[in-house]
Amino acid sequence: MKKTNLAKEHYQRLRLLSCEELWEEEVAEFDRAESRGRLDRVAVVRAVGVVFSESGTPEQQAQAMVWLRGLLNDPEEKVRRYAMTALPKLGGGVREEADLLNLLAATSGERERKFVARTLEKVGGSATLSGVPGVRLNAQTVRKVEANLARQENPGEIRFDRFLTTFEGVELHLHCREGLEELLAEEVREQTESGGPFRTNHVRPGCVVIVPHRPFSMGDVYALRCFSSLGFAMDEVGSAPDETDAIANAIASPNGRRVLEAFTEGPIRYRLEFVSRGHQRNAVRQVADRVYALCPTLLNDSRTAPWQFNVRHESGGCAVELTPRLRPDPRFAYRLGDVPAASHPPLAAAMARLAGSQDDEVVWDPFCGSGLEIVERKLRGGVSQIFGTDRSADALIAARQNLIAVGGEAIPTTLACCDFRDYQTVDGLLPGSLSLIITNPPMGRRVPIPDLPELMADLFQAASVLLRPGGRLVFANPLSIKPRDSQLRQVTRLRVDLGGFACHVEKYVRM
To answer: Which of 137, 183, 288, 316 is 20 to 30 A from residue 413's alpha carbon, by CA?
Structure first.
């Protein structure tokens, strides 16, 4: 077996040990070993950085940091390099920065200088920017250290209450699940008719393109609930001869800078992502260097940056979008409780929009889960009573958390832990009592369903009994099954991409 494979296997074994086992056995054995033996056991240095950063107490981490700092002076370059790789995982401050700068001044090896510079990119500060006599740091290292300092001094944030007043030429892409474009465009149109700042420019699969006709804020954009992600379109890149230059020019364009400066509090930090192309570290480095040369106030920072530039390659070249990185999405901040296989919040919002509204709305979600559909319907107003059923007590706890967190008017709510087919046991669920059934049932993909067609048929049967005339059933139907009751009439059927498979979001009205 190759030596590299043995070293990898050794690391994987060490990676499974506890901090105590690593420190008392493996680190102690490493420290006792002679030079050759230390090289054979050097994987322990990498393992200490990972394991102690993930599960070590503050005291253990401090102890490990002192040990790693000592290894920066090891006579073996390989040991020093491993220590440099492990050290940033445990943090790093002024003392670690000073040790690295001393090593940078002392070393003559080009490879080691590159490793020191890469470590300083993660832990360096003002001392690094002051420089080391006789050593010139490359532009990438300077740029990343500046981003570190900017993050420490003022992490920056996206402001929702600021307005972009110079909006000519700005185009916003509202991305959604393919098949929901009609509902999203309807939401934009409704906002426009009530005085909103946007109008729809055009619609394409999975995207509604809107443009402003007056100054707007991020709060105006995020008043829309049916989109999944937002992208500000940057200047066209197309199939330029020098793609790196073209992407950098798009990022640093006046259009992009206007958006960033209008909505950012603090330093402007961004992350760069080549969508669908995996890790492109060299390409990211080249683009970021050129962006920095064009506009030094735009700082590339892969850690916790509030903005991200997405580069999407298409048949005609590539396009660049600027998207806010909001975790959590402020529209769905009520989502305190969650469950496996829960609904996608914008899909729940779109289903609530499709359902429409009636006065004195009485709503039931047969497969309640964490309650996103009933929360979204509650937000649209006019609901007088809510029912939710689920076989999981934990799911109902999450649903109750979310219904409380969303606030608003207190509405009588019954959440019952039972199979939806046992609706007769739920106080208040009576024949003809409901105006809306809205649900995203299990599809049998993550949670096995013994007989999915029977489950869907039983849902239709329950709707036939419980809906009053004019009542609606809105749900995601994974099958092509139809109701046996002719009084349930289908009025809408949308084919929607639910993430790798298609499903139909359907609306029925009880005649």
So the answer is: 183
Torsion-angle region of 30 (φ positive above 0: left; ψ -120 to 50: alpha; else: beta) = alpha
DSSP letter assigned to residue 22: I
Cα distances (Å, whole numbers) of residue 311 to 272, 284, 326: 8, 10, 19
Residue 139 near residue 158 (C-beta atoms within 8 A): no
* Residue 81 to residue 456: CA distance in whole angstroms: 60
d(C-alpha 145, C-alpha 304), whole Å: 15
pLDDT given for residue 4 in this prediction: 57
Tens of pLDDT, residue by residue over 81-112, are 999 999 999 988 889 999 999 999 998 889 99
Measured torsion, CA atoms of residues 157, 161, 162, 168, in degrees rounded to the nearest 10 = 110
Can you list the alpha helix ranges (DSSP code H) found in 124-241?
126-130, 139-153, 181-193, 218-221
Residue 378 main-chain phi, psi, to 5 deg: -60, -40
Domain boundaries, the chain: 3-137, 163-324, 335-510
Give pTM, 2 decimals.
Answer: 0.82
**Is the separation of the CB atoms in 498 and 180 below 8 Å?**
no
CATH for 163-324, options being 3.90.1570.10, 3.40.50.150, 3.30.2130.30, 3.40.1000.70:
3.30.2130.30
CA–CA separation, 78 vs 455, rounded Å?
A: 61
Peptide bond into 328 cis (omega under 30): yes
Strand partners, 383: 361
SS3 string, 315-342, reads CCEEEEEEEECCCCCHHHCCCCCCCCCC
pLDDT in tens, 218-260: 999 999 999 999 999 997 776 667 889 999 999 999 999 999 9
Helix, strand counts (H, E) of the chain: 20, 19
In degrees, rounded to 5, the angle at the alpha carbon of residue 341 between the alpha carbons of residues 175 and 367 is: 105
**What tokens does 262 get?**
């209008």
pLDDT of residue 204: 96
CA separation for the pair 455, 435 (Å, rounded):
21
Looking at the domain covering 335-510, what would its CATH class be?
alpha beta
